[in-house]
């Protein structure tokens, strides 16, 4: 089977080949030389560490910058209850963007917290502002699914090789990418360490400094809730809580809880730049999610409907019952069923 890296050379050569034979009925020396030369060029390119010039910027498919202020405005309007995460992520992205040429490694972040607290939502917001067209987003925004992409324990070595090859080839075609590892707690232990050369920018065949890696995990979710309730019981408001209150417990949780980051060199070698706590969402934040969903659907929301949707949401843990146990994760389904109930 022809290697994909020089398959395009081969196809292009064949087009010239068939055009020549259709007209003259035989292969003229010039066309024959072109076919062989193009094929051999592709072959030796594949065998070497030579990186083809990046032609994607010519077509706008490899963006080098984006409007961080637009992202900030979108977060303010649509992302609720996460003042710590907002501050860390915006600062990290702005710093990474402004000093991209002097970066020593790509930006690596770990988003930690309960289901429904906004981890996936924030990555989608980041991607939609970094890559403003759907076509570019499909090329440059990559989601690796912990639950479905690493099913068989016996295939770990295969998964490692495939993961490294996929990430490397994406960066080789364009150095600006966002890689999101969703449900990292389902990834088998040890797989992610294969990426260390890329995450430290030590693979000389690529320059990974302009890409961003985000690991999403529930690891640390319980520790965040415990710490939050401890601070709350001492009279410390949510808005007064800081990253320093959670940073150490997040690192320990990621390193010790079962999952892709357990005992990982990514943590041991300080490759992860930011451990970002996603606080559990309270009733007020759920209300904002409901209002935002109705606004998105361009439908009117009255107080009675709002109350009915809130009744569908479970709160815990006992006895405080401060937090929505599934955050805003199921709000769109609740809103859809409630807003269309008159059609049933």
TrEMBL record:
Protein's GO biological process: cellular response to misfolded protein
Domain Torsin-1A C-terminal: 281-333
Pfam families from the UniProt entry: TOR1A_C (PF21376), Torsin (PF06309)
GO CC, alphabetical: cytoplasm; endomembrane system
GO molecular function, one term: ATP binding
Stored PANTHER family: LD13476P-RELATED, TORSIN
Family: Belongs to the ClpA/ClpB family. Torsin subfamily.
Protein name: Torsin-1A C-terminal domain-containing protein
